[in-house]
Design a protein that fits this description.
alpha+beta; 24% helix; globular; single chain; 4-stranded antiparallel sheet
């Protein structure tokens, strides 16, 4: 997905419109209040893709662990997110996607950190699987 209408359902699966949910975070009107909200908004940024998605992923990744290039692969189509567990600064999730016509799932437990009053993604603390 390369663009998302503000009134379509948010890709994070919250049931809200993109504008009311992750869109407000992507455009910088507000910041994620919890690690789970940040995880959902980062997933939505990957799903939206393009410059909006890439900029948001960059801004919300801890500078100590962020790679030089966070550009999304335009061949990936993100198709759904399930939050499996959210406790303190840890979120476990399963993100469904399709790549080259093959459906896959990224299952990861991620750690977040409150930095200067804003939550940021730090790292995966369990191996990711793309099977």
């Amino acid at each position: 997905m390369t663009s998302t209408s503000l009134q379509t359902a948010c890709p994070c699966g919250s049931g809200q419109t993109y504008d009311a949910c992750c869109g407000r975070l992507h455009r910088g009107a507000e910041h994620a209040a919890t690690p789970e909200e940040l995880m959902r908004s980062r997933y939505a940024a990957y799903a939206v893709g393009g410059q909006v998605g890439d900029d948001y992923v960059f801004r919300t990744w801890h500078p100590r662990t962020r790679p030089a290039d966070v550009a999304t692969d335009p061949g990936l189509v993100w198709t759904g997110l399930a939050i499996l567990r959210a406790e303190e600064d840890v979120v476990e999730f399963a993100a469904r996607y399709s790549y080259g016509g093959v459906d896959r799932v990224l299952h990861e437990t991620s750690r977040f950190e409150l930095r200067a009053g804003r939550w940021v993604y730090v790292e995966a603390i369990t191996p990711s699987s793309g099977a």
